[in-house]
Design brief:
The structure holds two protein chains of two kinds. Chain A is an alpha/beta fold. In chain A, 34% of the residues lie in helices and 21% in strands. Chain A is built from 13 helices and 17 strands. In chain A, the strands form three sheets. In chain A, strands 1, 2, 5, 6, 7, 9, 10, 11, 12, 14, 16 and 17 form a twelve-stranded mixed beta sheet that branches. In chain A, a hairpin with a 3-residue loop joins strand 16 and strand 17. By secondary structure, chain B is an all-alpha fold. In chain B, helix 1 crosses helix 2. The radius of gyration of chain B is 12 Å and the shape is globular. Classes of the chains: A alpha/beta, B mainly alpha.
């Protein structure tokens, strides 16, 4: 990173299967409350019989929570994936003290990542068209489905008038959103960036599509465990407020952490198989920029999907980057609790891991049978563990070979 | 009939996110912020709830809420009488 413009985090927000709000989400992860359970999704009379699928869904009143936060009715005007971005954006901006701030008028960017789009709306529309032979689609189908709907909703709600758009890179989407927002601040174009992502794809047809990929577990997500057999889909959204350090200091904002390294790479190799080189390149760049390879303890929030290939490759990449000191770093894998949020995964895991860093407590990896000897790392197991780490590495390795690694340092 | 009218007003308030107290006969659709997409959204919701089909040109001369509501009521009552 260009040292002249440092980037800090001043707000966090989340809604997830672990709870509504960043704190509730953190507490769920900390306390090892796994949210992955069998779901029976009824697609209606024109669909084939369905079967139970393990997934993690938001169980509280998301609409009520969001309407209460914003102080207005939303009704059915948004697809769930946009709703899952609005609440976290409000929470993060409120924590940063930026609701209604002048900087939103011009010098603020908003970039959100999503692997998919308004799948709930799309499936209902298709059922009406193909199943019921309805001649008309709901007039809001397009604005509810389009991948930029959540970030437009956020911009309209909070009057953010700088660069605003969505990015997509499958499971690394919100990692790229964070990187893009950081770029706007680093270049001097903006002082604040609202970044993160959301995903809502626990729908009957979309889950069948994921199963077709042979990457879904029939039971649950067991990162780095023997007997792991795939991922479980989750839903939710998470947002961070990034800010130029001098801007945050000038207005007396509470600084939570510094975004001190951004490593991006592409495997250019395979749709679903990861490459060691791509992961090492992204992690290595982030770690070098953040200067965390000098022997200090680093909390590693892994991509940790629970697929046989990802976890083995990621463990090898961590050992390659950190060398003989790899065992010194506590490793977490919170997808075992909240499922894989695909486009929102990086942002949600970032929110959880940043709170973990501040609390000095690493949340446990759930559903472990026993650690896979091929994934020999310092896995946090059983219960939350006190940690000394002052820095955190956040990994995401997407299908299609698109990688992000982000390094954060605690701000004291 | 009064029940149907109340039901429709509730549905419109919910669908178009308009304060129910503003849904009075003399209000213009423009005053209520009901643009063309808003009108079609309400029509869609009424069609779904009552299993009716409303012609696309049914509102071509409608400017005020009272007339708008009357068209919707008429379509639903016709269906019920059939």
């Amino acid at each position: 990173m260009i040292p002249s413009r440092r980037i800090v985090v001043t707000g966090l927000g989340a809604v997830s299967p672990l709870g509504l709000g960043a704190q509730a989400t953190w507490e769920g992860a900390r306390d090892g409350r796994g949210a992955i359970r069998p779901h029976h999704l009824d697609a209606g009379p024109h669909a084939p019989d369905t079967r139970d699928t393990p997934a993690a869904t938001i169980e509280g009143d998301l609409l009520g929570y969001t309407e209460a936060a914003l102080g207005r009715k939303i009704g059915a005007s948004l697809d769930p994936f946009a709703l899952m971005a609005l609440g976290p954006a409000h929470e993060a901006l409120a924590q940063a003290g930026l609701i209604g701030a002048e900087v939103l008028e011009d010098r603020t960017a908003a970039v959100l990542g999503h692997g998919f789009a308004g799948i709930h709306t799309l499936e209902v529309g298709y059922e009406r068209f193909f199943g019921q032979k309805g001649t008309r689609m709901h007039p809001l189908t397009v604005p509810k489905v389009m991948v930029s709907a959540p970030v437009s909703a956020v911009a309209i709600e909070f009057k953010i008038r700088g660069p605003v758009f969505a990015v997509s890179s499958a499971c690394a989407s919100s990692g790229h959103a964070i990187a893009q927002g950081a770029g706007f601040i680093r270049s001097g174009e903006c002082d604040v960036a609202v970044v993160g992502g959301s995903e809502a794809i626990v729908t009957p047809c979309c889950l069948r599509a994921w199963e077709g990929l042979q990457a879904m577990s029939p039971t649950t997500c067991r990162p780095f465990s023997t007997g792991r057999d795939g991922m479980a889909i989750g839903e939710g959204g998470a947002v961070m407020v990034l800010e130029a350090l001098e801007h945050a200091q000038a207005r007396g904002a509470t600084i939570l952490a510094e975004l001190s390294g951004v490593g991006l790479s592409s495997d250019a190799y395979h749709w679903t198989q990861p490459s060691l080189e791509g992961a090492v390149k992204a992690m290595g760049r982030a770690c070098e920029q953040a200067d965390v390879l000098g022997g200090e303890s680093v909390l590693i929030s892994t991509h940790g999907t629970g697929t046989p290939l990802n976890d083995k490759n990621e463990a090898a990449a961590i050992r390659a980057v950190f060398g003989e000191g790899a065992q010194r770093h506590p490793v977490i894998a919170t997808k075992s609790a909240h499922g894989h949020l695909i486009g929102a995964a990086t942002a949600l895991q970032g929110v959880i891991a940043l709170i973990a860093l501040r609390e000095g407590l690493a949340p446990p990896i759930l559903n472990m049978i026993e650690p896979d000897p091929e994934c020999a790392l310092d896995l946090v197991l059983g219960a939350a563990r006190p940690i000394e780490a002052q820095a955190m590495l956040l990994n995401s390795f997407a299908f299609g070979g698109l990688n992000t690694a982000l390094a954060f340092r605690l701000w004291r | 009939m009064a029940n149907l009218r109340e039901e429709l007003i509730d549905l419109i308030a919910e669908e178009a996110l308009i304060d129910k107290a503003k849904l009075v006969p003399g209000a213009t659709l423009a005053d209520l912020g009901l643009d063309s997409v808003g009108v079609v959204s309400v029509v869609f919701a009424v069609e779904e709830k009552y299993g009716v089909e409303i012609a696309e040109d049914a509102f071509k001369d409608v400017n005020d809420f009272g007339s708008f509501l009357a068209v919707l009521e008429g379509v639903v009552e016709t269906k019920r009488a059939a």
